[in-house]
Design goal:
The chain has about 190 residues and is α+β, with helices and mostly antiparallel strands. Helices cover about 25% and strands about 35% of the residues. The chain contains six helices and 14 strands. The strands form three sheets. It has a six-stranded mixed β-sheet with strand order 1-3-2-6-5-8, covered by helices on one side. The radius of gyration is 16 Å and the shape is globular. The two termini are about 30 Å apart. The N terminus is likely disordered.
Length: about 190
C-alpha cells in the first residue's frame, strides 16, 4: 500500500465519489487513501484461478465470488479494501446497489513482496473486525504455500497451512482442491 500525497482525512462518502472516476484503484483506511499497486503475472494468474474455481463451484449455491474490482467495506474498522477474491453468501450483498460488499465470509489475498507484511498485519487485523468473515487466505505467489486462517467456534483465528501435494480447503464455502490447481500456469512446480 502506498499512501496518497494528501495528509488530510477524507470521509468515506467523498472516497466513494472520487473512486467512481479514478483511473486507478485506491483503497481507503481510516480517512486515508492508498493507491493499489500493479500486479505481477503470477499474481494475476493465481487470482484468476481461484476466482474461476470458486465461481464454478459456487454456481447456484447463493454464494458469489468477487474478483479484484469489488471493494469490501468493514464499517467497524472504517475501511474499503480491494481483496484479490472475496466471497459473500449474504442476501444483503446480493441485493445491494452499492459497489462494495459488506458481508464477506471468505477473503483471499495473493501475497507480493510489497504487500505481504501489510496483508498479514494491519489488513488482517482490520478484516478480523468483520463479524461475517470466517476465513482469510494468503497465497504465496513465489512458492507453493497457502495459509488459511479460520475463525473457530470460540472466535479465535486458527492457521491451517498447506503446501505442495496437499488439498487446500476453504471450509467457509465447503470447497477443496489440489493446491497445484491454484498455481496452474502461474509458477514452476517442482
Amino acid at each position: 500500500m502506498v499512501a496518497s500525497k494528501s495528509c488530510t482525512s477524507i470521509s468515506p462518502e467523498d472516497y466513494l465519489e472520487a473512486e467512481k472516476v479514478s483511473p486507478i484503484k485506491q483503497e481507503y483506511r481510516q480517512g486515508k487513501i492508498y493507491a493499489k499497486a500493479g500486479e505481477s503475472k503470477p499474481h494475476v494468474i493465481i487470482t484468476g484461478n481461484v476466482s474461476v474455481l470458486l465461481r464454478n463451484y459456487l454456481r447456484g449455491s447463493g454464494c458469489m465470488p468477487y474478483m479484484a474490482d469489488r471493494k469490501v467495506r468493514i464499517e467497524a474498522s472504517n475501511f474499503y479494501y480491494y481483496p484479490d477474491v472475496a466471497v459473500s453468501c449474504d442476501e444483503r450483498d446480493k441485493n445491494a446497489d452499492e459497489d462494495f460488499i459488506r458481508y464477506p465470509c471468505l477473503i483471499v489475498e495473493v501475497l507480493s513482496q510489497t504487500t505481504a507484511a501489510f496483508d498479514r498485519g494491519d489488513k488482517f487485523a482490520d478484516y478480523r473486525t468483520s463479524e461475517s468473515l470466517q476465513e482469510y487466505v494468503l497465497i504465496n505467489q513465489e512458492r507453493v504455500s497457502v495459509e488459511c486462517f479460520r475463525r473457530n467456534a470460540e472466535g479465535l483465528w486458527v492457521l491451517y497451512p498447506y503446501t505442495q501435494g496437499q488439498d487446500v480447503q476453504f471450509a467457509s464455502v465447503n470447497f477443496s482442491c489440489a493446491i497445484e490447481t491454484l498455481y496452474e500456469d502461474a509458477i514452476e512446480i517442482g
